[in-house]
Amino acid sequence: MTSSECRMDAASVSAIDDERLDWRFRSVPSSLWGLTIGEAARLRPDLFNSGFLAPMVVLDSRALDHNLRTMSDWCAGHGLRLAPHGKTTMAPQLFARQVEAGAWGLTCATAGHLRIYRAFGVSRIVFANQLVDPAALRWLATELERDAGFEFTCWVDSVRAVELMTEALRDATRPVDVLVELGADGGRTGVRDEAGALAIADAVRKSPALRLAGTGGYEGALAHDATARSRDTVAAYLRRLHALTIALADSFETEQVIVTAGGSAYFDQIAEELTTGWPAELPVVPVLRSGAYLTHDDGFYRRISPLGAHPRITGTPLLRSALRAWAEVTSKPSSELALLTLGKRDISFDEGLPEPRSYQRSGVTAELSGHTVTKVNDQHTFLALPPDSPLEVGDRVCFGLSHPCTVFDKWPLIPLVDGENVTGFVRTYF
Amino acid sequence: MTSSECRMDAASVSAIDDERLDWRFRSVPSSLWGLTIGEAARLRPDLFNSGFLAPMVVLDSRALDHNLRTMSDWCAGHGLRLAPHGKTTMAPQLFARQVEAGAWGLTCATAGHLRIYRAFGVSRIVFANQLVDPAALRWLATELERDAGFEFTCWVDSVRAVELMTEALRDATRPVDVLVELGADGGRTGVRDEAGALAIADAVRKSPALRLAGTGGYEGALAHDATARSRDTVAAYLRRLHALTIALADSFETEQVIVTAGGSAYFDQIAEELTTGWPAELPVVPVLRSGAYLTHDDGFYRRISPLGAHPRITGTPLLRSALRAWAEVTSKPSSELALLTLGKRDISFDEGLPEPRSYQRSGVTAELSGHTVTKVNDQHTFLALPPDSPLEVGDRVCFGLSHPCTVFDKWPLIPLVDGENVTGFVRTYF
């Protein structure tokens, strides 16, 4: 598992374009109903004059292209294979773009997501979690048997998980590759100490159903900002992962050894800590699993990304925010407050509230400053207005968002825009 | 608008059963792929031994039936018409159950939702918001023209909204009925004072596109608990709404006058304040818009509902919580912490975290106490374990949830269960 290119089933991906638009897609103009997604995209409808309903979330295609290329180039230049975390978007069309841009594989979060990846033929999947559900494991075994080109690896962080997997996979014809997941106190999953890790590795080696293929973990569960202290915590964790991999050097059962970490917050440190210092005889493949880099954001990742507002990587273009929401002012009950058609069911609110950027009235867009979102309800946004606010009922406001994962999961279909033209639609499956 | 029964298009609703199951529905067993929703339901698969993947959210069909009947009976007995807020579930099959149970209409939140209601032929819709989007208004006008039996009313809370609606509806053949929305300082939408309300009513009367059909508002934006102080705030607001309706008595342009309020937190007070004290000549139809009553919950609504854990209504059976989540323990990195396959993308977290209730291992279910969810990530739940916790990796844990609205929007298909048997599937559209 590591040599060939990652593949997807191009026919399944392009079949998305054949789905017909209708009332299920809540921002799509009713004038496009009955057309396929592909037909609608070829019309290049105008975002503001074609009847798109607010609220809507759109993806800036130029920012997306830029981020794809930037991250692909950066990983290639820093000795990292990229297995983008697909959970962020759950959009096979974007997976395909990532694979085209050179992704080594795709990272997957859940058993349900795994079936979606396989429906689109993703050939190399890093399942960055434990997988102990017997039904999911049996289904995985049939997929591995059906498709000799399918490469899969998941994590184990307990001997009990090894036992449960071995039991569920007792009839499997191909072994399942697993990585020992290292965690840390105060973190999330992952075995906490080296002794535990060695015991797990030992259990894996004894299991007829599993092969030990490397190590992994998630530094993003240990810190939540880019302070020196947080970065030290991350570095210490990555060094433990490095040391554990070396301690397990004689235990790996695969030709190459995967060592994987990395969300979108500390990938500079993944390159620093996991691409060097390996014994010559240990065939390590360092794999980065960032997902949010693809759209970046105007909040959490803007603050924390090494290619964000406070860059820690130099000589590489910064990531650009590709996600925006548009909503309408429907009420201005006082001079200090406007209510907009945007709610918890439309946008993320878990890592910061939407940030107003501009507004549009009668086809003219203008910057907006001094306005602050103070609260979101299920279907409303509360916007605090400055004394000189130009906003009136009927205006459309553009928002930057924070945390792309909890935006994508609210939209089955997201227009791709180039300026004011819709150039495509991205279908998500949640 | 008020006399006939609310109707839906039965053929469209039952056509939901013809949709084929596949990988798009993330908890559905792969063994059911290829079957239609209706065929799968007729198999009555066992929830625990048929390969349903965790995480999964299920609806208790007996609790649902009970809540449907309870609220329907209570409204009928207290002089209220019920227009359940469909935004909670966005599930046409449940809308149909509510209509069968005697709902007078359905309440709707957004322009996108409105198109979904109409795709299922909902004949009477209270749009409990302003609607100023020109494309949405033009589409509404075509629906009103196409279907003489379609009754619609929405809110206005500014003269500017009246002007925008009038402009967008200049070619409409049927007038759009509107209610003046009354708000309150510190609240959400709604005109803040009587003078403003009278000016809006005057503008509506002068608009060729609109008819003044009543008054409305949402007391739930003014309070968030059931303390005496909050209930006083709600009562004061409802009395202002009552007084405003009387002040506008000569302005209404419809045969009957809708007065509407009510989420699922203070419906006892809606009955008290809005069903009595009307002048004999004012043909008031008091309309309650509760939505969350249908599933109730194990958090926010359990605390605040008049038929919840601290009931303020006597002589009526209490509502029952109908939503549950099941997730798997995949990691227990220390004796104090377990991680489960349940995250922000699976369940609500905005009005309280999931509450563990029981667990299952090898087909045996047992109660679980002393366990507390401390955090949820995108795809993980952190469960703090007591010293004697029986939980091990591989166990499934059942959770009660808080705030149904932000649960439904994460699941396109939700199994209906009777005990451990799946008896149907509820399809949602978000």
UniProtKB/TrEMBL annotation, chains A, B:
The family this protein is said to belong to: Belongs to the DSD1 family.
Protein name stated in the entry: Amino acid deaminase
Domain of life per record: Bacteria
Keyword terms: Lyase
Cross-referenced InterPro entries: Ala_racemase_N, D-amino_acid_metab_enzyme, D-ser_dehydrat-like_dom, D-ser_dehydrat-like_sf, PLP-binding_barrel
SMART domains tied to this protein: D-ser_dehydrat
Keyword Lyase attached: yes
Classification via Pfam families: Ala_racemase_N, D-ser_dehydrat
Domain D-serine dehydratase-like intervals: 322-418
